[in-house]
Design brief:
This protein folds into 4 domains: 246 residues; 82 residues, no CATH class; 102 residues, Immunoglobulin-like; 106 residues, Alpha-Beta Plaits, CATH 3.30.70. With 587 residues, it is of the alpha+beta class. Helices cover 37% and strands 26% of the residues. Strand 5 and strand 6 form a beta hairpin.
Amino acid sequence: MAGILGVGSGITDIDSIVTALVAAEKAPKSQQLDRLETKTTSRFSALGSLKGSLSSLQTAIQSLNKASVFESRTATSTNTSVITAKAGTSAIAGKYSMQVQQLATSSKVGLQSVASSSTTFNSGKLTISAGSSSFDVNVTDDNNTLAGLRDSINSAGKSAGVSATIVSDSSGSRLVLSSSKTGEGNDIKVVATEDGVTSGTAALTTQSFQPSVSLQLPAIAGGATTTFQAGDLSINAGDVNLNVSIPDGFTLEDVRDMININGNSQGISAAIQTDSSGARLVLSSTNGSSLTTSVTSSGGSVGSTALTALNPATGAVATSSGPNSTSGAAGVISQAKSAVLFVDGLKVVSDSNSVTTAIDGVTLNLVSAQSESDILAGKTVDITVGVDKATVKTNLQKFVDAYNSLMTTVGQLTAVVPMGEDEAPVAGALVGDATTRGLVSGLRSELVKMAGSGGIQALAQLGITTQKDGTLKIDDTTFSAALDSDFDKVAEYLAGDNGLMGRLEANVNNYLKSDGILDQRTKALQSTLTNIDDQREALDLRIAKVQERLVAQYTAMDQLVSTLQRTSESLTNQLASLPGFVKKSSS
């Protein structure tokens, strides 16, 4: 407008006049919209805070309303360095006494060593097994070194849980095979066959391996020619049970031969070892790590010694020979064994150290075996299975905390704070809000409602009371006593659709669900904010037109005044030029 209005008219500051008139026209409506926007934004933010606190309460309610919380079981051990336990929902509360005699182990073997890692093997095939799993490794001139065999075994043995590495000792270098499968009968075995296609510097068959265990029987002072009275030997090796009848008058050598004749086809053999104490039988088996024998004597007149002299000494157990660093012979580094434990005196055998079948619903994790002296002394580890009261307590405390947080938020949003004399009080954004009143009223109504006719009927019986400010407080002693005396009734009162938490969840859900009460309120407020923006745009358009009209009016007035001024000046000049016209002196 500057430079347009007031040209030639002599009227000053017309721009300011138009600006003032436009501002006066705009101010009332603009201030109204500002007040409405501030109030709406404040309520929008307040409802967001309320929704956040209510969502936290809903989460706490849902956590406590789960049946699994009350079905959960705990399992504690008196010695976690020996055994730990985890109980499922089906576990029955009780106490169990345990003894862990042996842990489950996996197989590890060292194969026959060769002169150096650069030794090559004849071509053929290695069939490697660990229990029921087996795989083949084809040996050609591409992989016929120890490193080549190692890599091929690691590649082919992944699914069977078998891996290989190379270890060098004073005898040379050898493959060491390891299995991840624990349990009796899962020992590593290697069968090597040659196909005659290519030749190396060592026979592939040297890598064959059949694990075996040996059991030494007592030494017989009379030597290998000592005669025995008739009797029976019962040899148990893995799944094989071998019974050998010994006639009257048989020598130790005869007993050896009878065992070999009857047992060779079943992986059982016998040999005689002689030392300063005499001659003794050594039984061997390729049927796993277990090998036991018992001897009974039926008597006789020829033999000089009762056959029961061959009964193993107390505590004698089968052992296996490890790899020999002098001769380079293959051997067992560790045997595949099953875990052995006793549950309330009952023997349990498991292929894994994670035992799931001993106690219904309980997983026992074996950490270490007890010492022989502890087992002989009858020392036990107790596993106690019980209801999970701690989780219930924790979840109930979370509910109380969330409820109290909601009440605090509501108090802040609906508070009226006096500011002193001659000062208007400060009111919360939701003072007098019907939605907030309805929410609080609904929650409190459910909290004080009596339930059923027996068992737990009110929160007060759980030690939960309402304080003066509307928040809740837990008396831990009362609540713990209720859990101890009637856990199932506590669960029935709190959980389920008809339980307190179920009713509270239904109430809260009315406010928080999609298109629920709070959702509708926030949508309405958002609509108001959008409408305010629309009204501002309409106001700006109307004010622009008012300004345009005022500019036009003042421009016309300016032009009219300017024209009138010019006309006046012209008439004055004409009158001055008339005869007899005397110009009046200014003095």
